[in-house]
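Structure request: TonB-dependent receptor, Aerolutibacter ruishenii.
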Amino acid sequence: MRSSFAPLALAIAAALTLPTLAVAAPQSGTTSGAAAASAGVLVGQVREAARGVALAGAAITVDGRQATTDSTGNFRIQGLAPGEHTLVVDYLGYPRHSSQVTIGAGTTATHADVVLGHVAGDATQLDRIVVRGQRDAQAMALNQQRTSTNYINVVSADLLGQFPDHNIAESTQRIPGVSIERDQGEGRYVTMRGAPKEFTTVSIDGVQLANPDSTSRGVELDTIPSDVVAALEVTKAITPDMDGDAIAGNINIRTQSALDRDGLTLRASAGMGRYELGNGDNERYNATIGNRFGAERNIGVLLSASRSKQGRFTDNVETLYERFDDGRIMPVEVQVKDYEGTRTRTGLTGRFDFRIDPDNLVYFVASDSRFEDHEFRDNLIIAMDQHTAASNQVTGNVRATFDKELRERTYDKSIRTYNLGGEHYAGDDWKIDWQVSNSSAEKETNPRMQYIFRSSVRPKMDYDYTNHDFPAWTILGRADAPATGVNLPEQWFGFRRLNNRVEYGEEDETGLRVDLTRQQSFLGEEGDIKFGLRSRMREKSFDDERLRNGSAADFNALGITMSDMLCDRVSNNFDYFLAGRTFCRDIFQKYASPLLGSANHRRLVADSVTGDYAAEEDVHAAYAMLNARWDRLTLLAGVRYERTRTNGEAAQYNEDTDEVVPVHASNDYGHVLPSVHLRYEAANDGVLRASYSTALNRPDFMHTAPYRVIGELETSPVTEGNPDVDAAYAHNLDVSYEHYIRPLGLLSVAAFYKRINDPLFIATHSEDIGAGLSRQVTRPENGKRGSVRGLELAWQQTFDFLPGPFDGLGVYANYTLADSEADLPFGAGSTELPGTSRTNYNVALTYDKHGLSARLAYNYRSKFIQSFDVESPELNVYWDDRASLDFSMSYALTDNWRLFGEVNNINDDDQVRFQGQRSRVLEMESFGRSWLAGVRYEY
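Returned structure:
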């Protein structure tokens, strides 16, 4: 154990013993024994009648004292005088519940379980508002959001299940202010409120996830299936008891518990379908089983598992533009790519809960998510040089060099978390929460092999980008060349090389936390003070091994030509880019071994060493915060201090001496993070919130290491880390108003502003190397300041007031407007922050009645900048706007069985990247539609 663990470990040990000591020790202090004895405690659980599901977010009121049910539906109110009291439970989707409870004198807690949907003490069914299916899920989410002091959005697993989403990243895009970045059409990274993806943290039950991505803090959420969670909690205004590295906010994945309902939990589904492009398989299976055990049914065990398999095909064409010394911007490279791959995603979550008594709960949660992507990529590369004087961006004449290649790549990434924790009440005033956790992530790419064949013919070629999405190329002076296009003669190509590459990265974080909460009466009518300690110790490393065999003699010894490695399938990208026959998929198994075993198969030492790094980051934090309530007004204020220590290791390679030189760097800094949150419960179900909070964005791990990747020539570009770069620091303002529509709905508006000091960029500048020479150096740098501002609108409503059958209709819609600006390093002007889309919106029409549940959902995200070219800002890279129309439906065959179906990307929208302007298309790719149908069981 590291020495820095010791203080927090002692604190947790003390927390574990406090409940026992508090019960055993006599009451003392300023409160008399008689007064202490007169205090009463009311504990209970709120459930719904139909399935016995615990209802989180119910507002509990007893004679002016307030509480909110937790994720298992439990509540606790302390300090009640002995005698009769009125218990009021308010939960959207049900009539308000009111009943009498009798509080006894002394320390023994009074129990009052509430079942909404029945008259107290009677089995008569109330005129319950029908909110089954999708509406049950909507009610759960809205109630948790309504009772929160700070601004959050909650989406339950049942509601997520109504959307045809494949992973957690895609599920989050339905939430106001949240958008996603995609990889081959599938959601991968999450961005919130127009901020870079690194500004958003992701956790499971409060445990921050380790990240398999070696280059960014943005978590690759395509690793995690959408079927193994209970709810998503999106916090947009963080509080002092939360980790401070969340400028945009935090997404917490809450796992399911067997204590969330009365009896057996059993759900399962299976679905099969197709992807239109390539006719690939689309399969998805999941199952959840859980139950309560013990004489008092106070032990919960739940297991949830899922698996999906997707045969994804992608058409892809890329053109790279460069700015020449004379100012002209012209195409310099074209790649016509055919992707064929299989993505397999598995998830397993297990949870154990032991409610020892009403005052003590211990839990253990373990989760494992895996994502394997096995992919073949056929690629025709056209390198263009020797542009004529008359050439420009649209038309021109060049010399063309052609490469034809096949890459086989498999990467396997995983995220595991283990979380042991407890909640304990000690005496009348104290609550202790503690948690010990570990999260680890791995990403291994093996194999990653690539055959490259190069044309011995380098003809003159005309290009025409008048239609920038579908350009034309014409080869000149060759009778054997095609009249148009690039379906080139196979005999032009000869062996160039076989590349072999293996990548491995891992990240591991151990977390320790203890929180202590005490009732307070010195401010407001009631409230509490909370303080705690937190430590997170994270290690990250990346290793890249590159080898190559470029011996034509070794290949000739195989007795084959490139044509022998091609099969009958023809590349027909977008039904336009004809690139000839594609490679057979078994050529690595059949022909690679002699090349890999040859003495000419050599390690590329510089490439294999200079990109490797190891980094450590220890964050130790302490906080204190105050919660006070006055009737309708709630104040939450506090401060957090975080101390960060980093260590980074890398290696530099001396080309002259063939020496590998290890290098090391470290940093140590601290930040104070205050915040204030106000919540006012207006009349007629209105909630007004205002928040000021502060947060950090630490540099990516690889940039804390002093790596330096140098090209072959002295003047070649250099990429390096910058251990001295500062963490970005943000001041956040949030104001929101929510009006909750009964029986079930919401209208809300929220405005936000973020002032960011020292925003982080990957920037390029010129470095003087003497003798009148210079080279370009790319590394992380700080800008001076930046800002993000925006507006969120949301509308959810079920139209129960309409006449049948239209009373089953509903709407789920939200709109986000965001704008950002930041100063670039080196005084190079200003730009938007990466990831800022000016406009995001969702519109979903729903229907839920007579066993039919259907949803037509439209999602839109406007363009956003991805990366910067400081030297040539007109070549900054943008993702173009994208819209998707999806449909899902299910039909209840019985009380337990349902049929379901989904269709994705109905509008068959493509994804486009461009450099500076839409006419300079850097990348255009198409994925096609997909569909899936299956059966679902729920007990």
